[in-house]
Amino acid sequence: MLSGPASVYVDGSFISRSDVPLVSPEESFDCPLGIDPSIRVTYQPLSKKATQSGFVTRSSNTTFTQRILLHNTKSIAVDNVKVLDQIPVSEDSIITVKLISPPLESTNIPGGTVTSTSSGVENKSGVKVPPPVKVAQGIVAQWDGADDLTSEDDLSSLGNDGKISWVCSIPSQGKVTLTLQWEVSAPLKTNITGL
């Protein structure tokens, strides 16, 4: 395929223009196709619940919940919709951030559960990674980048950036709700910014 400009149409309607690179036979390439207006993504207001614990060393725990609503207005089902989001990452050792939902296995994440990858699945490079978690019918979640790891050495950094991806199947005229929930714990009266 020769390189050059391309016009992108969805259901007969012009969406955007894109540049296609030079591609040899059986070679893959990435090409942005623009926004499909028939798939709507709505972020509900972020909710948070604060609690305190401990008698001698008091700490504050705040649970954050973000709901993401996907609505397919097409007359056909849409498969393999990928949604990316991120939880905060602590840069201070006294502040911990723990992912609650989706319940992903972590490899080297502060506040996370250290697990063995012997029960993992192999990605396209043959590296064993924690398996995707089935969240609901037609929805799986995993740490973003798990499919792209090229060596076992990269496994220790999986999830350190807090990025999570869901892959969803949305029925025609259907809605799917994704829930991202995390907990931030710190000693009482610790000044936390960036949340």
Number of strands: 13
Chain-averaged pLDDT:
85
Helix fraction by DSSP (H/I, runs of at least 4): under 10%
Distance between the termini: 46 Å
Largest sheet: 5 strands, antiparallel
Q: SSE string, helix = H, strand = E?
A: EEEEEEEEEEEEE
**CA gyration radius, whole angstroms:** 20 Å
Shape: globular
Low-confidence stretches: 109-118
Number of helices: 0
The assigned structural class equals mainly beta
**Fraction of residues in β-strands:** over 45%
In brief:
The protein has 195 residues and is mostly beta strands. The protein has strands at 4-10, 13-20, 39-43, 47-53, 59-72, 78-86, 96-101, 121-122, 128-129, 133-136, 139-143, 163-170, 175-187.
Your description of this structure?
With 195 residues, this protein is mainly beta. The chain is 0% helix and 46% strand. A hairpin with a 5-residue loop joins strand 4 and strand 5. It starts with a strand and ends in an 8-residue tail after the last strand.
SSE inventory with pairings:
Blueprint: E1 4-10, E2 13-20, E3 39-43, E4 47-53, E5 59-72, E6 78-86, E7 96-101, E8 121-122, E9 128-129, E10 133-136, E11 139-143, E12 163-170, E13 175-187
